[in-house]
């Protein structure tokens, strides 16, 4: 640690006394919008959403790209507003809340009472340059929806979506990732809400007997 501090101080002194300004440009910060989910009937259930895991190299605040030769790298001068799993979890919670389909939606299992949990794994969330030319945003999410009272899995599935970026610019790449995520999240939400709705209907029918 002492060596690093001394080296940094020496570099700073050289820059000051040499009259140089070598300030690193701050990265541009991006976020992912909450997906717009399809309308439907209300379900008398509470949901907790957790983005639990990511593929290697994605659990960061950097925007990933995939290049030929199985190479993973990151867009220069750009960052997500948070680590990717937390960013996507926040967007999913907001999207499910805005849908109005459930009595409550939260992002922290155990803080409040929930009847169901949606656990998500991020398998792909990157700009794919492997085909050459303009990048293709690739999103793949693996989801498990379960009932918390007895830890029973109701459904497990994978959704994926892609969207081409119209140009190789940061804003275009991020917009394509946002669009691909919106499509994948909408499909995931439909399947998850169908599973929760069917489970709630069975529970209601059982209590009525």
Structure write-up:
- The chain has 209 residues and is an alpha/beta fold.
- It has a single domain, classed as ABC-type transport auxiliary lipoprotein component (Rossmann fold, 3-Layer(aba) Sandwich), CATH 3.40.50.10610.
- The protein is built from three helices and eight strands, in the order H-E-E-E-E-H-E-E-E-E-H.
- Strands 1, 2, 3, 4, 5, 6, 7 and 8 form an eight-stranded mixed β-sheet that branches.
- It is elongated, with a radius of gyration of 22 Å.
- The N terminus is likely disordered.
Q: How is the biggest beta sheet arranged?
A: 8 strands, mixed
**Count of runs of 4 or more consecutive helical residues:** 3
Q: How many strand elements?
A: 8
CATH class: Alpha Beta
CATH topology, by name, is: Rossmann fold
Number of self-contained structural domains: 1
Average of pLDDT: 88
**Low-confidence residue ranges:** 1-22
Structural class by sheet pairing and helices: alpha/beta
Shape: elongated
Distance between the termini: 69 Å
Give the full name of the CATH homologous superfamily.
Answer: ABC-type transport auxiliary lipoprotein component
The run of helices and strands is: HEEEEHEEEEH
Give me the Rg, rounded.
Answer: 22 Å
Give me the CATH architecture, please: 3-Layer(aba) Sandwich
Percent of residues in helices? 25-40%
As a percent range, the share of strand residues is: 35-45%
């Amino acid at each position: 640690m002492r060596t690093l501090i001394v080296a940094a101080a020496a570099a700073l002194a050289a820059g000051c006394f040499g009259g140089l300004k070598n300030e690193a440009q701050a990265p541009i910060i991006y976020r992912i919008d909450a997906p717009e989910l399809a309308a439907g009937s209300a379900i008398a259930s509470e949901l907790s959403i957790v983005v639990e895991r990511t593929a290697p190299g994605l659990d960061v605040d950097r925007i990933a790209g995939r290049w030929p030769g199985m190479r993973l790298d990151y867009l220069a001068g750009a960052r997500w507003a948070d680590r990717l799993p937390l960013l996507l979890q926040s967007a999913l919670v907001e999207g499910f809340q805005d849908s109005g389909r459930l009595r409550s939606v939260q992002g922290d299992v155990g803080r409040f009472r929930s009847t169901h949990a949606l656990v998500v794994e991020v398998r792909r969330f990157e700009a794919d340059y492997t085909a050459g030319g303009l990048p293709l945003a690739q999103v793949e999410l693996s989801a498990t929806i379960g009932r918390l009272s007895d830890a029973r899995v109701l459904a497990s599935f994978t959704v994926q979506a892609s969207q081409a970026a119209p140009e190789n610019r940061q804003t275009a790449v991020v917009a394509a990732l946002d669009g691909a995520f919106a499509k994948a999240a909408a499909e995931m939400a439909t399947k998850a809400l169908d599973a929760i709705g069917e489970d709630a209907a069975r529970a209601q029918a059982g209590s009525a007997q």
